[in-house]
Amino acid sequence: MMLEINGLSKTFRGGFKALNHVSLTFKSGEMVALIGASGSGKSTLLRHLSGLMAADAGGGEVRVDGQPVQQNGVINRNIRAVRANVGFIFQQFNLVGRLPVLTNVLTGGLSRMPLWRSCFKLFTAEEKALGLAALARVGISDHAYKRASALSGGQQQRAAIARSIVQKARIVLADEPIASLDPESARRVMQTLADLNREDGTTVIVSLHQVDVALRFCQRTVALSKGRVVYDGPSSALTEKMLRELYGTEAEDILGGSNKLTRPRVDVPTIFDTAPALVAV
């Protein structure tokens, strides 16, 4: 399922330009990392892609398989149908803590249910079986009937991924899903997203603050700076020099003074290979 962005712009109060004429195309089955310094526009972009936020009037469009999510600052009136194919994983888990994990996961199917059933959260035996299977797939089926608040952060994120599986989302947008997790929990969450991408062909677009994770799990990386796309290409072509320019004063925290880019690299021809620094695309 293809996701297209054309000339997307968003200006907040005070004239802050969060997105500045962003144009990108994500093909079906890609796993793409969004990187950039704090305030570069990563979260804002993801929220526009799902229709959670409207662009400026006349500020471009977002389409999923040709169907508009929004155009020129107006959200599609039938956004519920479009969102049925787009799952969203938030940094802060976004589960209802007092409800069982299974119930949280089953809400992924609400957009495909008759309205009267979705209002009362009435699930069939078949739907419950699908939810349990999704929890088993992400490795937390033994927590199905626990309150969501009893789960660790990493387990809650995997429950959110299970919710996208129940939703049958063809595109999953993940907004810094590992930002508050310990290294092992972060690895499990990213591996679960990678498995979903590889086994189901689901398009995964994930914003990350950890450059080494982006390099390890995503073949393509899109870098944002001040609301603009400044890099779009193979993750393997990113260099430490480019990343230091991208992150500026945050570079030491991101790279930690260690060589996080050390890993087997694949030389992929790209216009950025000979660039001395990041360039606008």
Strand order of the largest sheet: 7-8-9-3-10-11
Q: Could you describe the largest sheet, including whether it forms a barrel?
A: 6 strands, mixed
User: How many helices?
Assistant: 10
Q: What is the name of the CATH architecture of the largest domain?
A: 3-Layer(aba) Sandwich
Determine the mean pLDDT: 88
Query: What general outline do the C-alpha atoms trace?
Result: globular
Strand tally: 11
Order of helices and strands: EEEHEEEHEHHHHEHEHEEHH
Which residue ranges are poorly predicted, with pLDDT under 50 across at least 5 consecutive positions?
262-277
What's the CATH topology name of the largest domain? Rossmann fold
Question: How many domains comprise the coordinates?
Answer: 2
Task: Give a nutshell description of this structure.
By secondary structure, the chain is an alpha/beta fold.
Which labels suit this protein?
single chain, 281 residues, alpha/beta, Rossmann fold, six-stranded mixed beta sheet, five-stranded antiparallel beta sheet, 10 helices, 11 strands, globular
